[in-house]
Amino acid sequence: MINRVYIFDTTLRDGEQSPGVSLSMEEKIEIGRALVDLGVDVIEAGFPVASPGDFQAVQTLARELRGVEIAALARANPKDIETAWEALKEAENPRIHTFIATSDIHLQYKLRKSREEVLQLAQEAVRWARKFTPNVEFSAEDATRSDREYLAEVVVAVAQAGARVINIPDTVGYTVPQEYYDLIVFLVERLRQAGFGEALDKGELRLSVHCHNDLGLAVANSVAALLAGARQVECTINGIGERAGNAAMEEIVMILRTRGDYFQKALGTALETGIDTRKIVPTSQLVSRLTGMFVQPNKAIVGANAFAHESGIHQHGVIAHRLTYEIMDRESVGWSGSAIVLGKHSGRHAVDYKLRSLGWKLSREALSRVFERFRTEIKDVLRRIPDEYLEGILYDEYLSEN
Ligand code: KIV
Ligand code: ZN
After folding, report:
1. Ligand nearest to the CA of 241
2. Ligand 1 contact, 75 CB (< 6 A)
3. What would the pLDDT profile of 4-54 be if each residue is shown by its tens digit?
């Protein structure tokens, strides 16, 4: 199987469905451009039939953005699909993403249709979409709560109808990694039995995953699915999205990059993406600012504390060698500045290190004096101590007398 993982970014569609988020057209274009720079493979720009605003957003992004596939969402009916195409048609590389639910819960309470009817609608939807473009993705909404045998039937049927990408969403964030892994292995097997082995191996047909974070497992489930053979992952910047959000792109990308050794051992090859990881933090900050969804400080990769060391023991270790407490290079994801953060747990080594990085090399005695005052003054006062505060102590205690 191919070792390239395709990043399908749905920040502007599922991400924008986060409660309270509403982006203007200019903001969508700014985020779209940042996503292209970041190196995503597909941008899901919206759900054109949902509103005139969504239609216009997809149309504008399709016209403006180059060097990326633009996807638009459509339910499995001709009107949605035609509207999606109308919005998409000027894109350099358009993709129609059509979906229908496959779980009995959705069939009974939402769609009020039988399994046979849904199977037929799914196949027809792919055929309708292919009248406009060969680049068609099908999603089996609520796949993880669907009957496995029935889901496999739908998956094979849409592959036969010509879908290039088949997405297996964990719509309500219900599955757990081993279960999801087994499901993807099972579906790959069924596709191989149906004659799609070569297409899967060459990447001409791809299984995709789309995980929500209701149980905090969206990233873990996505990674499990990649280990099982999925080669497209749907995700958002900062993990924003409906309810508890979607799988966070930055985490998935950095897991693949940081643990290439593990994937090499498990699959015989590391998995690669086209993401320029140095653009991760700037993109995260842009999305956070424009959506108003602040990133928690301890969020992996992009949280303000993700690479910060405050405790004396950790600071001492990192100053001696960063590998002691760092598994990634902070610059590699776009952070700049020092990882050493001064606070009430900081020790003498950190104060010395900070002063040196500010250009001050102190004698032992002077350092002791500055450190003593630093320790006494900041105790229980502030959380993060700005560099200027330390320099202020230095001036007061030492330089002002000399
Ligand atoms: O969560 C979901 O199932 C979706 C689909 C429309 C792909 O967002
Ligand atoms: Zn979703």
Report:
1. 2
2. no
3. 999 999 999 999 989 889 999 999 999 999 999 999 999 999 999 999 999
ipTM: 0.99
Find the 250 Cα to ligand 1 centroid distance in Å. 20
Rounded to whole angstroms, the Cα distance separating 40 from 33 reads 10
Helix, coil or strand: residue 371: helix
pTM: 0.92
Residue located nearest, by CA, to atom 2 of ligand 1: 171
Ligand 1 near 102 CB (within 6 A): no
CA-nearest of 20, 15, 23 to 290 is 23
Model confidence at 386: pLDDT above 60? yes
Chain segment 309-352, per-residue pLDDT in tens = 878 888 888 888 888 888 999 999 999 877 788 888 888 998 99
194 DSSP 8-state letter: I
pLDDT in tens, 146-201: 999 999 999 999 999 999 999 999 999 999 999 999 999 999 999 999 999 999 99
CA 201 to chain CA mean position, Å:
25
- Please calculate the CA angle 73-108-158 and round it to the nearest 5 degrees: 45
| CA gap 293, 162 in Å, rounded | 38
Return d(Cα 139, Cα 158) in angstroms, integer. Answer: 10
Residue to substitute in 9, 14, 17, 209 for testing ligand 1 pocket (most ligand atoms within 8 angstroms of CB): 14
- Of all residues in the chain, the percent with pLDDT exceeding 70 is 98
Nearest CA to ligand 1 atom 1: 171
**137 in contact with ligand 1, CB cutoff 6 A:** no
Instruction: Report whether residue 141 contacts ligand 1, using a CB cutoff of 6 Å.
Output: yes
- Could you tell me the two tokens for 261? 């050794």
Sequence ranges of the binding site for Mn(2+): 14, 210, 212, 246
Residues 249 and 357: their CA atoms lie apart, in Å, by 33
Closest-lying ligand 1 atom to the alpha carbon of residue 139: 7
Q: What angle do CA 270, 300, 18 make, to 5 degrees?
A: 105
- How many CB atoms within 10 Å of residue 313? 13
Phi and psi for 367 in degrees, rounded to 5?
Answer: -65, -45
| pLDDT attached to residue 2 | 87
